[in-house]
Amino acid sequence: MTVYYNQESFNPVFGSKPVTGRPKQMEKQPNQLLWNLVFVGIVFLTGLGIYKSSQSIDYIWRWERIPQYLFYQAQEDYIAEFDGVISLGESGVVQLVSDNDPDTVQRVMQPQLLFADDGELVFEGDSFAATTYWEAGPLVDGMVMTLQLSLVSIVLAIIIGTVAGLFRISNNPALKKLAILYIELVRGTPLLVQIFLVYFFLGSVLDMERFTAGVIALSVFTGAYIAEIVRAGIESISRGQMEAARSLGMGWHQSMRYVILPQAFKRVLPPLAGQFINLIKDSSLVSVISITDLTKAGREVVSSTFSPFEVWFSVALCYLILTGVLSLLVRKLEVRYAVSD
């Protein structure tokens, strides 16, 4: 009796002919239109429920207050340096001619606002023209600070996590136990406590700035989780890969760098992306040491607008934008490396 192997089901099949299984094109496909309508219906009902819930509470929504805290139109005034008369020149040039000396002129190139007419007397210290420009509001500034914290912390966390992950699988007992101690201590204590310890203890000893303390705390915390991700990724690679690399004359470091780590990176990319997203959200905790990130900026805006719901919905949307862009970039990396296999 001949034994054939079914590659699709991975089961031994007895018989005279190999069983190929059911072709994919013959599998029944779900009704795309029906299930898309189900999805739209669920989203609609969820939104309707949120709307009805908001109507049931005694709260006046003031969304018109929020845009100015994202972007606002700033104004730069031009102050008269002496008493003089306004003279409108060609190409929109505004001149302030001194009363005492006609040769003394203060020029402003094409101001957007003019507070005095042609020939009008302006006294020293008065504003006679101004230009306007768009300026980022506190929420956008906080979003930029959160992005800076996250990017620097991600880079350092990758370095720390990779080194700790390699130590974790090392045959050297000292390095291995140090890595285990670091991972267990960091993962076993809250991030908020670590931020306080880094800022108030280490920061006081080394005269560390708030931003640096926040980056160190986030990097060390995230690095412990990345270390376990890296360890799991390396151990998922077949031992034969290392043996084949060593048989070609490569050393351990060369084998790890050119053979093992590139393969492990492809496998750990999804969990790494999840960890990076968590880091962006965890960065909100650095507001406790007075770093004006997105969360602290949101608290400041709430205190000035008395519109907590609108502000925190806007803050949540900003975090969603950051994490969504990161997820999209990681997804493109996954597709790129999947094609390169």
TrEMBL record:
<keyword id="KW-0813">Transport</keyword>
<keyword id="KW-0029">Amino-acid transport</keyword>
<feature type="domain" description="ABC transmembrane type-1">
    <location>
        <begin position="143"/>
        <end position="330"/>
    </location>
</feature>
<keyword id="KW-1133">Transmembrane helix</keyword>
<keyword id="KW-0812">Transmembrane</keyword>
<protein>
    <submittedName>
        <fullName>Amino acid ABC transporter permease</fullName>
    </submittedName>
</protein>
<comment type="function">
    <text>Part of the binding-protein-dependent transport system for glutamine; probably responsible for the translocation of the substrate across the membrane.</text>
</comment>
<comment type="similarity">
    <text>Belongs to the binding-protein-dependent transport system permease family. HisMQ subfamily.</text>
</comment>
<feature type="transmembrane region" description="Helical">
    <location>
        <begin position="311"/>
        <end position="330"/>
    </location>
</feature>
<dbReference type="InterPro" id="IPR035906">
    <property type="entry name" value="MetI-like_sf"/>
</dbReference>
<keyword id="KW-1003">Cell membrane</keyword>
<keyword id="KW-0472">Membrane</keyword>
<feature type="transmembrane region" description="Helical">
    <location>
        <begin position="147"/>
        <end position="167"/>
    </location>
</feature>
<feature type="transmembrane region" description="Helical">
    <location>
        <begin position="33"/>
        <end position="51"/>
    </location>
</feature>
<dbReference type="InterPro" id="IPR043429">
    <property type="entry name" value="ArtM/GltK/GlnP/TcyL/YhdX-like"/>
</dbReference>
<dbReference type="InterPro" id="IPR000515">
    <property type="entry name" value="MetI-like"/>
</dbReference>
<dbReference type="Pfam" id="PF00528">
    <property type="entry name" value="BPD_transp_1"/>
</dbReference>
<feature type="transmembrane region" description="Helical">
    <location>
        <begin position="179"/>
        <end position="202"/>
    </location>
</feature>
<dbReference type="InterPro" id="IPR010065">
    <property type="entry name" value="AA_ABC_transptr_permease_3TM"/>
</dbReference>
